[in-house]
User: Which sequence fits this backbone?
């Protein structure tokens, strides 16, 4: 069945099924996380040649213990795990113009070894004033561009911090390159390789840039971006163990929703698809005839192990379940009938909303088939070795100082 970013209800159900094996709390908590995740994936999805391309790396995951799972939130922007460098800088800026700088706001050392000789206090004072002047000019270039917040990939000198604070410009230093790229996609800013290249049109926009203290650590939230192509899911939980479990659930659901959107297709779960494929293969086997027919029938029967196992795990009778499923699937409208493990019966899983990405099913069947082929190849090799009378080289163990195999016999 087809799915698009507009089908949020279907995508939510795909995310919920993917999180089903994770013990992250109540149904309300799972529902909230699935909604956040679907929102995040649809924000970063880009349509190219009629298909949606989703880069999961653009959905950043940040986690911090010390809250509740329900405190998990979607930030329409980027959460930077750094603090604003100077206490005198604004900690909350609304409608912020954001500059991204890839060069250091400090006096860099020369690439060649150099030595400056200062012979008088006047020369020392002149040298320090010149340094200060250069740093002030750097800050003036930032101010001229109109930037209110600066994210710098490298260091910021203490003097430069002072001048930035005096001008009411907030700054964050030593931001990771990956975070700089995400900030560029979220705010629409261009990363300037030097301050000389910084122009007003290079700046990005964020509705709110704010430093918050979460569990005793300062973090900078860049949020409320207009059309963010990079977002952050901030995972919370009472303990590190809970947070890690929620993070794993989010990663699983993110992969499932992304796969469904990228391919534009999904299927019903609960063994319904395996039963339908099995039915089709059994009908195909009769048409083929010969010994190949037996192989196709065996493949079809192996697919039935999925609903059989689900029935056993749910405490249902596996034989009765398979018979009931085969009866339903023989009818034309029974394609989506599978094992409802919660109710302990065979039911229409499309109506129940048990959905999975088609890509996951394809990959599972492909991997299982390849594993079976691998086992068969190994079995053939073992059989041929056995028929040839063992793999001992001529002379047996005689080369080790003892009697040869022939002598031992």
Assistant:
């Amino acid at each position: 069945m087809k799915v698009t970013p507009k089908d949020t209800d279907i995508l939510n159900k795909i995310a919920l099924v993917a999180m089903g094996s994770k013990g992250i709390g109540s149904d309300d908590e799972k529902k909230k996380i699935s909604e956040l995740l679907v929102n995040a994936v649809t924000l970063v999805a880009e349509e190219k040649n009629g298909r949606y391309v989703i880069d999961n790396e653009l959905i950043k995951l940040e986690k911090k213990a010390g809250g509740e799972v329900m405190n998990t939130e979607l930030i329409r922007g980027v959460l930077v795990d750094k603090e604003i460098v100077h206490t005198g800088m604004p900690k909350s800026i609304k409608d912020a113009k954001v500059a991204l700088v890839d060069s250091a706001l400090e006096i860099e050392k020369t690439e060649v070894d150099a030595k400056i000789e200062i012979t008088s206090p006047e020369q020392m004072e002149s040298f320090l004033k010149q340094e200060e002047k250069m740093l002030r000019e750097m800050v003036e270039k930032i101010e001229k561009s109109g930037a209110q917040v600066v994210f710098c990939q490298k260091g910021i000198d203490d003097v430069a911090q002072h001048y930035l604070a005096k001008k009411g410009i907030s700054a964050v230093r030593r931001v990771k390159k990956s975070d700089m790229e995400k900030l560029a996609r979220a705010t629409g800013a261009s990363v300037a390789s030097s301050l000389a290249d910084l122009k007003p049109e290079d700046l990005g926009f964020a509705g709110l840039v704010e430093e918050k203290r979460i569990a005793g650590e300062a973090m900078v939230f860049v949020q409320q971006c207009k059309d963010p192509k990079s977002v952050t899911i901030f995972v919370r939980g009472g303990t590190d163990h809970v947070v890690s479990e929620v993070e794993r659930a989010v990663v699983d659901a993110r992969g499932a929703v992304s796969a469904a959107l990228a391919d534009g297709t999904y299927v019903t779960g609960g063994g319904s698809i395996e039963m339908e494929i099995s039915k089709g293969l059994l009908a195909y086997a009769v048409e083929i005839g010969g010994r190949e027919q037996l192989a196709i029938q065996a493949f079809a029967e192996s697919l039935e192990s999925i609903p059989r196992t689900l029935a056993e795990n749910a405490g249902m009778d596996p034989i009765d379940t398979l018979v009931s499923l085969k009866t339903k699937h023989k009818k034309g409208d029974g394609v989506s009938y599978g094992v409802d493990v919660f109710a302990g019966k065979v039911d229409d899983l499309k109506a129940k909303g048990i959905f999975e990405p088609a890509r996951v099913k394809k990959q599972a069947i492909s991997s299982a088939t390849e594993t079976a082929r691998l086992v068969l190849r190994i079995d053939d090799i073992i059989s041929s070795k056995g028929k040839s009378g063992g793999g001992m080289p001529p002379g047996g163990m005689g080369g080790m100082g003892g009697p040869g195999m022939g002598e031992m016999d």
Remarks:
- The longest helix spans residues 358-387.
- Residues 394-409 have pLDDT under 50 and may be disordered.
- The two ends are 68 Å apart (CA to CA).
